[in-house]
Write a structure and sequence with these properties.
There is one protein chain. The chain is mainly alpha-helical and 318 residues long. It has one domain: Glycoside hydrolase 144 (GH144) (Glycosyltransferase, Alpha/alpha barrel). The protein is built from twelve helices and twelve strands. The protein has a two-stranded antiparallel sheet with strand order 1-2. β5 and β6 form a beta hairpin. α1 runs antiparallel to α2, α3 crosses α12 and α6 packs antiparallel against α7.
Length: 318
Amino acid sequence: MTDLPQLYAALMIVEQSWPSLATVAASVRVGMFDLTDLWNPAAEGACPGQLFWAMHMCDGVETGPLNYYGNDALLGEFLAVATGAAPPTFWSECLPREGCELCGVGPYRFYAPGDCSCGNPIPATAVGGPFLQLAPLTYLDSSQLPIGSLSLADSAANMLAAQRDWAADQALALWGWANHSDAETCNYLSCTMFTPEVVTPYISGMGLSLTRNGIDASCAENLFAFEQQGAGAPLDTGTVFHDFGLLDAWNHLTMSGRNDNFLYLDTGWLVLGAINACHGDLVRQRFAAHPVATNGYALLASLRIPCPVILDDGFPPI
């Protein structure tokens, strides 16, 4: 419910963008991913059932906390409704069991991606950091997602702004903390392992089309600062240079990172975010034009807003 929906959505965009590939893309999309396998219709009050987290090829379905608006399973949850695998009321009656909880303090409140805290003083680092909300927003149009008086796009922008302002308070040259490949070892880091000196650029690429708190300009400036520090140096094999873009993570205090630290999973997110920002939300628009997405948005439009209230912290209304 986190990775395969991204492939499903990408194939939808292929169908909308390249007519000569549409038939084979649709065949792959429908044939490889049947979301009905992950739906359990057991009733629980007003909630009509449960979406399982994953399907293990040996052990069968795996349960998981698919009850949040603020994590990267949201695209899969949208597609489950859009394809008819789950009833629309799953969105309005099942996810809000915990999904309406807001994390963060002050003006930078955001929907919980899971447990709000992982014990890290860097803000908005719980679970996987801002990536958790930016990932579904690569494809989904936040304005068509009924959640509450705080949109998912504003929630994600608040996560980025909290990190940006914390970095400024700490006099740090760069900012951006989310799951990444370590700048100095081959480990994959998350949550409690984030440190102020090691930052990752890809979430700034993903946030380029968000406008709240001026985060779009801040993301652009942050990406430029990564480049200026040297995080965009090509991979040097000793015999040839490969220009793979920005490293996945960078130590901005030592201004260094592993020469081979290019994680194309995250580079792909950065590129898709830049396409949305520079080409009129192209990825979101192509996704929205597909009949599956059109049906999903139409079904959600008829639902009640599940999270209508935001806690009053003494700050202006969001």
